Amino acid sequence: MEELAQEAGITVRTLRFYRERGLIPPPRREGRITWYDSHHLARLRTITGLLERGHTLNGIADLAATFESGRDVAEVLGLGEPTEETPVRLTPEQLADYFEGEVTPENLATALDLGYLATDGDEIVHISRRLLEVSAELVSEGVPLATVLSTGRRIREHAEALAEIFVRVIQVHAADSPIEKLRPLARAVVDAELSMALDRRLRESDDAPDGRRTGAETE
Asked: Which of 5, 105, 117, 183 has the most neighbouring CB atoms within 10 Å?
C-alpha cells in the first residue's frame, strides 16, 4: 500500500479512504500480503486527474461504475475495425478534456450504449476520431453533449436506412464493381443531398414571420 501511494503521489490515508469508498478494486491477496498492480495505479491517477477537473468523488464513483458496465472494444468492433473510421484510445481524463463539464454518468452510459465508446482495460476507445472531434466541436459551440448524443441516435436510424438503399442498388446493379470505388460515391450523394436540404431549411427559417422556426425544424 505504501508503494502504491508513493507511485500515485497520494498519502496512505487517502488511499485507504479510496478503498473504503470502493473507488479502487480490492488488492490481490496471498496469505497476509496484499498486492496492487498497474490497474490500481491507473485508477488512482484517473481519480486525481478527474478531481483536478472539478469532478467530485461521488461523481467519479458513478463514472467508474458506468465505465465498468460498458461493452469491451472487441464486442463493439465485432468482426473488425471500421474500414474508413479511425478508433481513438483515450484515458478518462482525456475524454473529460474533450467535453469539459459534460462527461456525466448519463452521457457516458448513452455513448456506451450507442457504441461510440467501448472499454479496453483502463482505457476508453472512441470508435471514430472524426465523430469524436465533431462532437467536441459542437459542444464547444454550445450544444449540450446530451443533445449531441440523442441527435446521433436519430441520425443513425436514417443512416442505416440510407446504407440499406445503397447496398440494394449495388447488389442489383453493380455487384461486380469494387466497393472501394462505390463507397465514396454513396457518401458524395448523401453529402450533396444533405447540403441542399440544409439550404432549403435555412431559407424556410429566414422566410418565416419574425424569424420563427417552421414546424419541421422544431421536431
From this structure: 117
pTM: 0.82
Rounded CA separation 89/98 (Å): 13
Q: DSSP letter string over 84-140?
A: S---EEE-HHHHHHHTTTT--HHHHHHHHHHTSEEEETTEEEES-HHHHHHHHHHHH
> Where are the chain's structural domains?
1-52, 70-156, 157-218
Helices marked H in the chain: 2-8, 12-20, 38-52, 57-68, 73-77, 92-98, 105-114, 129-140, 145-173, 179-207
Query: Which grid cell sits at 89?
Result: 484510445
**Domain 1-52: assigned CATH number:** 1.10.1660.10
Which single residue is written with the C-alpha cell 495505479?
Answer: 41
Q: pLDDT tens across 97-133, in order? A: 999 889 999 999 999 999 999 998 888 999 999 999 9
pLDDT digits (tens, 9 = 90+) for 4-26: 999 999 999 999 999 988 898 88
C-alpha to C-alpha distance for 189 and 203, rounded to whole angstroms? 21
Torsion sign across C-alpha atoms 141, 147, 152, 158:
negative
Which pLDDT tens digit goes with each residue over 157-201?
999 999 999 999 999 999 999 988 999 999 999 999 999 999 999
Residue 125: beta bridge partners? 89, 118
